[in-house]
Predict the structure.
Amino acid sequence: MSKLYDQLVVFGGNTNPALVDDICAHIGIPRGRAEVFKFSNDNSFVRIGESVRGNDAFVVQTLAEPVNDSVMELLIMVDTLRSSSAGRITAVIPYYGYGRSDKKDQPRVPVTARLVAKLIETAGADRVLTLDLHAGQIQAFFDIPVDEMTALYLLSHYFVEKRLVGPVIVSPDLGSTKRGRTFAEVLDAPLAIIEKRRLGNSGHSEVVNLIGSVAGHPVIIVDDEIDTAGSITQAADVCLRNGASEVYAAAVHPVFSGPAMTRLQASPIREVVVTNSIAIPEHKRIDKVTTLSIAPLLGEVIQRIHTGTSVSAAYRAAEALQTRLLFGSVSGS
């Protein structure tokens, strides 16, 4: 068993305060007191409002828009806790910004996902807890322990409850095939794959082929994140042209940047199911988006890290809880 630390405390930055509050409510502890704000000169500032000496401190910060501010808040909070003599510091990152910059796929480009990992370590984090990284190799960018959890089981069980007849799971590209297979196994459904190629750094792509049959079936398009919604809406059109009866979409991270909401609203997708790993602002909430809470999963894992017990068993505990609370944790937002 790993070393046990003193009191468990959970702090949060400004990018997803509601999720921080939900995690603390699940654990049954008050949120750690901290001020996180900007001075008039745009410099970020952190003040911890309680003693953390020897404590097991968790900092929950989603690295979402504004991404660079989110990264700096996390680094400064970790550094402040380290200089305040916290016993151990875990960076809890529901969404890992810069995760798509995970390799040198062109000449003279950065691997920014690795740079962010090194910054988090340098700030003083002892370990990282994250959710559905864009690429698995990002774990190897850290020289500290990384626990990567997945919300795919939460999303797939939501569709189990919908009891769709004969669904087909669709991966919107070859890179998402493993996620699609995991989803398909839970629903005992076949998998189809859309083959496409990206066009430069513009975010645009073109469909080359649909591998598998969707004719006469409802389809669920599964991805790790929805950014501009170009890929997901294009995939929906391809499925309908190939005879799908209706289209749903599921993704862990609702990045929803640029034209995403306009595209989703105008698309034939009946329902888009995401998690609250990223806070969805009021102006981006539309009726066809359903949000599931990851607070029970992250809260369970945080408690297990604190007590030094099995993290992998957290899936079973969180799944049992989510089964009881599923429709209570669903919101049309």
